[in-house]
């Protein structure tokens, strides 16, 4: 029986495939490389010494996706495939609603047709909107402020309805906090298109000399040093959370929802300091205006995942920075040899 990994060539997907192969799962990856590079597949093989099946398919094309269900004995699906850039989603809402919603509907429809019961969905802490307090528990109120977040919340709502109507389904909604870091090999990592929006890839591009300095978005938040506080989690810890979630689904648990974070909050300046220590590189920065839509503070309570999944994030912030730096310095141009 195999695990279908939609978006398995992407940042979190590729790290999860490595962990799945390590646990001897049969893996089938589907990706259209809209935000990834085919080289990732070779790198996964190099790290794991194992093989997997791959289909270059756009998941919005249900006929092409059905071929994958027909040709493989799939018993669970991990669904990473989505567009994920908040700012871009404001400029291109139709693309975001189309890709993220149609993808997921196609997968859920085919799962029903082919009698596949176990589904892991990549959700996000963005569904908590601007939380009233931290740490954030899974039963906090949900709201969103941008089309990307809206797609995640709509899909969560869809899943809740579908699970109510069909109690044979087992679904894990995983709400990721801020994934950073890379595989220790330095062979796979995060490679955003163009100028990064997220903090860690921006810092690594400054460190490698591709960008001049970091703009710190706001120094007047109600946080210990005035800069935004987030729950950064190592992508390998996150990947391992998916293996534990799959195990949980095998116990016929129905619908479950977990925060995947470390439970610790770090400010932007904490990250700048930790990164400089880990890399030996000074990160020049300037405090500028707040970024519209940002919140002051966001970190998880992870006790539900800790106790019900038997999972806990292990890597600390210095390891996250070391691994991000190894990836970036080994691959200054990312997977492809271009100059920004
Ligand atoms: P990513 O862009 O690196 O990976 C997504 C992969 O899906 C890419 O390889 C892309 O080519 C593929 N894809 C997108 N649309 C597709 C389609 N129509 N058909 C086939 N393949 C398609 O993103 P990531 O950082 O690995 O994120 C994975 C998931 O986790 C996403 O659903 C994202 O919304 C969610 N998430 C990410 C973060 C984060 O900060 N990285 C945080 C919370 C949640
Ligand atoms: C982190 C902190 C910024 C860049 C986003 C999405 C969320 C989830 C994860 C997908 C904030 C500050 C950043 C920079 C800065 N993605 N910052 N200068 O905004 O917490 O979450 O990614 O689901 O949905 O919203 O992450 O890395 O962009 O920002 O000062 O150049 O770093 O203001 O305090 P964020 P981020």
Automatic annotation (TrEMBL):
Enzyme Commission number(s) of this protein: 5.1.3.2
SUPFAM superfamilies from the UniProt entry: NAD(P)-binding Rossmann-fold domains (SSF51735)
Biological processes annotated in GO: galactose metabolic process
Catalytic activity: UDP-alpha-D-glucose = UDP-alpha-D-galactose
Keywords, sorted A to Z: Carbohydrate metabolism, Isomerase, NAD
Highest rank taxon of the organism: Bacteria
Pathway: Carbohydrate metabolism; galactose metabolism
Record-level GO cellular component terms: cytosol
Gene Ontology molecular function: any one: UDP-glucose 4-epimerase activity
Record-annotated NAD(P)-binding domain positions: 4-323
Necessary cofactors: NAD(+)
PANTHER family: UDP-GLUCOSE 4-EPIMERASE
Family assignment from sequence similarity: Belongs to the NAD(P)-dependent epimerase/dehydratase family.
Assembly description: Homodimer.
Protein name: UDP-glucose 4-epimerase
Organism: Romboutsia hominis
């Amino acid at each position: 029986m195999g695990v279908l990994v939609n978006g398995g060539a992407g940042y979190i997907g590729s790290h999860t495939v490595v962990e799945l192969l390590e646990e001897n799962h049969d893996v089938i990856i589907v990706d259209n490389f809209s935000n990834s590079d085919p080289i990732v597949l070779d790198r996964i093989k190099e790290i794991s010494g194992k093989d997997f099946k791959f289909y270059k398919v756009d998941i919005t094309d249900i006929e092409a996706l059905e071929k994958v269900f027909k040709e493989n004995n799939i018993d669970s699906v991990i669904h990473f495939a989505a567009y994920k850039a908040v700012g871009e989603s404001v400029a291109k809402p139709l693309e975001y609603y189309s890709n993220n919603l149609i993808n997921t509907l196609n997968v859920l429809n085919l799962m029903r047709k082919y009698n596949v019961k176990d589904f892991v969905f990549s959700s996000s802490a963005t569904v908590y909107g601007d939380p009233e307090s931290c740490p954030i528990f899974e039963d906090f109120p949900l709201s969103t402020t941008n089309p990307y977040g809206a797609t995640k919340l709509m899909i969560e709502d869809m899943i809740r309805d579908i699970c109510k109507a069909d109690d044979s389904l087992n679904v894990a909604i995983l709400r990721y906090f801020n994934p950073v870091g890379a595989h220790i090999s330095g062979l796979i990592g995060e490679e955003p298109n163009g100028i990064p929006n997220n903090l860690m890839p921006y810092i690594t591009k400054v460190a490698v000399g591709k960008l001049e300095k970091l703009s710190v978005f706001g120094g007047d938040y109600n946080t210990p040093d005035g800069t935004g506080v987030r729950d950064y989690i190592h992508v390998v810890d996150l990947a391992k959370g998916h293996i534990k979630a799959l195990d949980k689904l095998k116990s016929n648990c129905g619908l479950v929802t977990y925060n995947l974070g470390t439970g610790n909050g770090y400010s932007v300046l904490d990250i700048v300091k930790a990164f400089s220590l880990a890399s030996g590189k000074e990160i020049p920065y300037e405090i500028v205006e707040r970024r519209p839509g940002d919140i002051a503070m966001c970190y998880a309570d992870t006790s539900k995942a800790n106790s019900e999944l038997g999972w806990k994030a292990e890597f600390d912030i210095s390891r996250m920075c070391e691994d991000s730096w190894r990836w970036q310095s080994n691959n200054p141009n990312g997977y492809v040899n271009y100059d920004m």
